[in-house]
From TrEMBL:
One of its GO terms (cellular component) is cytoplasm. Belongs to the class-III pyridoxal-phosphate-dependent aminotransferase family. HemL subfamily. HAMAP family: HemL_aminotrans_3. The keyword Isomerase applies. The modification N6-(pyridoxal phosphate)lysine is found at residue 277. PROSITE patterns: AA_TRANSFER_CLASS_3. Homodimer. The gene is hemL. InterPro entries: 4pyrrol_synth_GluAld_NH2Trfase, Aminotrans_3, Aminotrans_3_PPA_site, PyrdxlP-dep_Trfase, PyrdxlP-dep_Trfase_major, PyrdxlP-dep_Trfase_small. Its EC number is 5.4.3.8. Keywords: Cytoplasm, Isomerase, Porphyrin biosynthesis, Pyridoxal phosphate. Pathway: Porphyrin-containing compound metabolism; protoporphyrin-IX biosynthesis; 5-aminolevulinate from L-glutamyl-tRNA(Glu): step 2/2. This is Glutamate-1-semialdehyde 2,1-aminomutase.
């Protein structure tokens, strides 16, 4: 693998990428950061501020990745920075209980349906631990997941997963023992009949159903109205647990997450919820939580073992707490407005350029599916439909935006993220780049 972008304006990033390739597989520490799906050289970012990234060649980009979700308030928010600097001045990790962990747990319990919460360091750890707990609590082994949903690189959940696996078109991965996925049933998303059938056949063996609360890892494919409720009720009927993965949506699409948009209104609660991204404020912090009786099974209160040297790290939990405290209703209203506006403009630009497409939003997350033919349904509802997109068109769209200073996810299978720092002036810059990108996608 070599850097394939030799233009002078990317010379520094290309040189750094060459160094990275010599010492790191693929030159990146997480596959989606690479440009394998779109070609070219990933930009090495040296600093970020508000809605902008600045790369090693001195170029400025409007950031529509936001660190894959966490940066709800934009980069280097003064309120978060001050809290973090103050925390760092008191030391960085003690291996004892601390005040910020309690305060962040309290904030999460107030905002969401969980009664108790345990901190970990990544979303992967959160889903892995939630599944172990669900199996320990129910004494059952089968896990139901949905094609196109990504829950981190947990062995049992790397079957028909979205995000990097969808980007690289790999159905699973070598290194996962057959036994690890043998107890995983993969169903099509948004398909209540498939769920009913799975429970009719295996109802008393299913420990849990895990789903992205509103998927963003196959592009944005929100749940059809009532789908999450149906999952919660079906699980309850069969003594299985409903695990809602809010690693991406939690504290991003509303004060609590997707549950604030459906469960709170429809009157149901998940048994377990996983969180990450926004709750760490840009630091490695994640969590899982839920019903007090289920969480009581967790070590040291109960027999299900789970642990972590840096879990609840004082700097990370301070950053998360500062972020959540600054994420007011006005912040969410602003994000909804900005996402609605931008989604409409993307739709308009693609229509004017004659590119068949669906632009789809789940709360304030959205993405565009670029197609060869006009869609046969009004929405993309599952991974099969998401996979029908023309990735070559996205590649052209992506690079035309990047050349105009807008950094989109380098994959057609990812959500686009905004922050409260994406004000009207920033949105105008994105909007003015869209027509040329749409024309590039049409070519
Ligand atoms: N669950 C969801 C819904 C995610 O989007 C992700 C990551 O993108 C994860 C879990 C895994 O989180 P992490 O990358 O922090 O391990």
């Amino acid at each position: 693998m070599t850097p394939d972008d030799t233009r002078p304006e990317t010379a520094e990033s290309a040189a750094l990428f060459a160094r990275a390739l010599a010492v790191t597989p693929g030159g990146v520490n997480s596959p989606v950061r690479a440009f394998n799906a779109v070609g070219g050289t990933p930009r090495f970012v040296q600093r970020a501020s508000g809605a902008f990234l600045y790369d090693a060649d001195g170029r400025e980009y409007v950031d529509l990745i936001c660190s894959w979700g966490p940066m709800l308030l934009g980069h280097a928010h003064p309120g978060v920075q001050a809290a973090v600097q103050e925390a760092v001045s008191r030391g960085t990790s003690y291996g004892t209980p601390t005040v910020p962990e309690v305060e962040l747990a309290e904030e999460i319990v107030v905002r969401t349906p969980v009664e108790k919460v345990r901190f970990v360091s990544s979303g992967t750890e959160a889903t892995m631990s939630a599944i172990r707990l669900a199996r320990g609590f129910t004494g059952r082994e089968l896990v139901v997941k949905f094609a196109g949903c990504y829950h981190g690189h947990v062995d049992a959940l790397l079957a028909a997963a979205g995000s990097g696996l969808a980007t690289l078109s790999v159905p699973g991965t070598p290194g996962v023992p057959v036994a690890s996925t043998a107890a995983t049933l993969v169903l099509p998303y948004n398909d209540p009949a498939a769920v009913e059938r799975a429970f009719a056949e295996h109802g008393d063996e299913i420990a849990c159903v895990i789903t992205e609360a509103s998927p963003g890892n196959m592009g944005v494919v929100p749940p059809l109205p009532g789908f999450n409720k149906m999952l919660a009720e079906t699980c309850a009927r069969h003594g299985a647990l409903f695990v809602s993965d809010e690693v991406m949506t939690g504290f991003r699409v509303s004060r609590s997450g997707q549950w604030g948009l459906d469960g709170a209104r429809e009157g149901w609660t998940p048994d377990l919820v996983t969180f990450g991204k926004v709750m760490g404020g840009g630091f490695p912090a994640a969590a899982f939580g839920g019903r007090a009786d289920v969480m009581a099974m967790l070590s040291p209160e109960g027999p299900v073992y789970q642990a972590g040297t840096l879990s609840g790290n004082p700097v990370a939990t301070t950053a998360g707490l500062a972020t959540l405290r600054l994420a007011t209703e006005e912040v969410y209203a602003g994000l909804d407005r900005a996402a609605g506006l931008l989604a409409d403009e993307v739709d308009k630009a693609l229509t004017e350029a004659g590119v068949a497409h669906v632009v789809q939003a789940g709360g304030n997350m959205f993405s565009a599916f670029l197609l060869d033919e006009p869609p046969t349904t009004d929405s993309v509802r599952d991974f099969a439909a998401a996979s029908a997109q023309n990735v070559a068109r996205y590649r052209a769209f992506f690079h035309a935006m990047l050349d105009q200073g807008v950094y989109l996810p380098p994959s057609a299978f990812e959500a686009w993220f905004l922050s409260s720092a994406h004000d009207d002036a920033v949105l105008d810059r994105v909007v003015s780049a869209l027509p040329a990108a749409a024309r590039a996608a049409a070519a």
